[in-house]
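Hey L., structure's done. Input below.
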Amino acid sequence: MKTFNDNAGRTWTVAINVDAIKRVKSLLSINLLEAVEGKLIEQLVSDPVLLCDVLFVLCKPEADAKSVTDEDFGRSMAGDAIDHGTTCLLEELVDFFPLAKRQVLAKALAKLKAFQTKAVETASKRLDDPKLDRQLEQILNGDGLPALTPGDSSGNSPASSASSPAL
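Output:
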């Protein structure tokens, strides 16, 4: 069992066992056993609302004993509380499975953490790049959008109005 604190200072215990998996499946129609396939983990990590719903259902017996509603729980989940709750949930999921699946899931989580770290580092480097400051200055000075140089990333550029069909 793992614990985390919400932003109201309450400590919650996350325990994943057959009963907890059945409760999540019954109340949320989410099968935690699908975590081995990887997509569910990706959903939980990228959707904090879904993650908090799962955490609440896992902690529901404790929440009922503390007279904490789903709404109260949700109001107390933001920032680091979500991060700590995510860690508890994922570590408990790994620990639930037998050795072979546990090893696969542990590898998947390690890859996910490495990817997240790299994504944050890359975003930080791009935001610290002086080229970005110059491009923003050009835009703010009314010089229009700066030309992209090789190596710059660009989104989808809009098609010219000549190629757009008339409405």
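The first strand starts at residue 2 and ends at 5. Residues 2-128 form one domain.

-- N.
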